[in-house]
Amino acid sequence: MLLSIQELEEKKISFDGVYEPGKLDFSESGVTQVTPLHAAGQAELLENTGGEVRVTGQITVTMEADCDRCLAKARFDLDAPFDLFYEPNSAVEGEVEIAIDAGQAEIGFYMGAGIELEEILQEQVLLMLPMHRLCSEACQGICPICGKNRNESSCDCSAAPGDDRWSGLKQFKVG
Ligand SMILES: [Zn+2]
Ligand SMILES: [Zn+2]
To answer: Are 18 and 30 members of one domain?
Structure first.
């Protein structure tokens, strides 16, 4: 869905849609959409800004990604608002400095006839995901020695007291 500037010049555009998995492209992001994505909100052209568009809304979806520690599938239930500003790309051309208003969270740029809502949604979903994607905060990860998933079974690799491999180190420390 194109948030058309021409249309925005006449009125606000409201959107309220459901995107089944596969409709939005997350193929290069290493994440998978598990549930239909629900996006609702509106776009408006701000007056006396030379074409700045504000897009606000709410995204609800469940995403899946490999856990950073154990590589098992980790699920993320997202339900978060967004509030974005887009300026026409021509407005920055030739300007040496790009002023960033601290009061505005995000400023993007658009070219041509408008902004694709789908591109906004894809980008926002990725931003809403946590930096560290873990299956759970308590994830034990994978043993670096034997490669076992420590969440599923424990292994004896961790330096057990009396383990020969570590005795040399102990002596070294003490001595
Ligand atoms: Zn994990
Ligand atoms: Zn191990």
So the answer is: yes
φ, ψ of residue 148 to 5 degrees: the values are -75, 145
Joined together, the tokens standing for residue 159 give 């330096």
Same domain? 145 vs 107: no
**Which structural domain, as residue segments, surrounds residue 115?**
2-139
- Per-residue model confidence (pLDDT) at position 15: 98
Q: Are residues 43 and 92 in the same domain?
A: yes
Q: Which tokens sit at 154?
A: 């424990």
If asked whether residues 129 and 155 sit together in one domain, one would say no
Q: Give tens-digit pLDDT for 130-139.
A: 999 999 999 9
* pLDDT tens per residue across span 100-113: 555 545 678 898 89
Which residues make up the environment of ion ligand 2, defined by Cβ < 5 Å? 143, 145-146, 155, 157
Cα of 83 vs centre of ligand 1, distance in Å, is: 31
**For the chain, what is the domain count?**
2
- 11 torsion bin: left (phi>0), alpha (psi -120 to 50), beta (else): beta
pLDDT at position 97 over 90: no
